[in-house]
Amino acid sequence: MIDPASSAAPPRQVRRRPKNRRAQIAAESAAAFGAHGYHGVSMDEIARRLDISSTALYRHFPSKYALFREELLRLSGLAVRAVELPEAAVEWSPRQRLDHVLDAVIVLTITNRPTVALARWERRYLEPVDFVEFTDQFTTAIATVRAMIRHVRPELDGYDRVVRAVSLFAVISSIGDHHVTMSVKALAPLLKATVWAMIDADLSGERDAAPIRGAGERLPPFKHELLLRKAVELFHEHGYPNVSVEDIAVASDLSAASAVYRYYRSKSDLLAAAFRRAADRVSGAITPAVSAANTPAEALETLIDLYVTGSFDERALTFVYYAEFSHVDRADQVTLRHLQQVIVTEWATLVTEARPELSLGEARILVHASFSLVVDLGRTFGDDGICPPDRVIRLLHAVALGRPLPS
């Protein structure tokens, strides 16, 4: 005989809402944005990651944008707090105060490494009011560091100090752009030593770098070249997801969007072509530079010259190369990522040959930092003359080789 008690339905498990549900949602969405970018994540996907309903998600945040805004403003707020000094700092030397701040910024960046890239490349998707708040907070942090550098290097002018302040944030935050693994115990001192090398470097003097072509000096491009250039300019200005094939056709003076498809299969094909162009420019310089050099350091100096001048010549392309990788088709991503790894390895090998005290992993970190620094300086200062190519070249020399560039 069946025992009625044994056939009864199991007691219903009541799922209690965690008290910190809002914080959990913010953290999980930040991780998703960090992995896939703002446009690569939906509210439904965030709800699935949290194992909650979309309705429950919307009770805490009204939109995906609200979650995105939450994370970016959190990061900018942390940057302001990282540059604050304790009361005991009044007894410290200027160098000790700056060293304390560098430690704080480095720890902050390593702790938030999965989402640091959002602040670098996705901030343009903030709404105007939020963008101003975000920018103001980072500007405050940079201004605070700039003032500290003035006390450490009083002989520097204001432009030189602000370039170094921007550069140190760029180098430290570059760890968000790649997946090179390294223990915090090794990574933190490497970043700090690199930043101090930039602060202490002599950036004066001029170098005979390759000439930078102005837009008026370019030869009239073939139609497929014009399409690629206009597409890159639009991706740079508005972000890849916000640009349509119709926009590219109009910018290229084509009669209809269908005309674009005579040259490129899709908008994604245009993006992949831009990535190949950028990667080929860097990879193609390696063998000639190494063959013509007498030492690894000399080869690296040549590559730095070529990379900086090439990046200044095609700033929009260099920015898009970093900001839009997640939008390249998966198959193309595999090929491009392999080429990126080859380039970084070739540069890193030269770094280790010039600096035997470094491991290949440490050299990779410095190579990524060098590439990232060029993009950030170009984006921050543009063509205003504050940070010309020769100054950027000297900064990269300090990053990659750890010593000032000889005049």
UniProtKB/TrEMBL annotation:
Location of region: Disordered: 1-21
An annotated Gene Ontology molecular function: transcription cis-regulatory region binding
DNA-binding region(s), residue ranges: 42-61
Keywords recorded for this protein, A-Z: DNA-binding
Ranges of residues in domain HTH tetR-type: 19-79, 221-282
The keyword Nucleus belongs to this UniProt entry's keyword annotation: no
InterPro entries membership: DNA-bd_HTH_TetR-type_CS, Homeodomain-like_sf, HTH-type_TetR-like_transc_reg, HTH_TetR
Gene3D superfamilies (UniProt xref): Homeodomain-like, Tetracycline Repressor, domain 2
Protein name stated in the entry: TetR family transcriptional regulator
Species in which this protein is naturally found: Nocardia mangyaensis
Phylogenetic placement of the source organism: Bacteria, Bacillati, Actinomycetota, Actinomycetes, Mycobacteriales
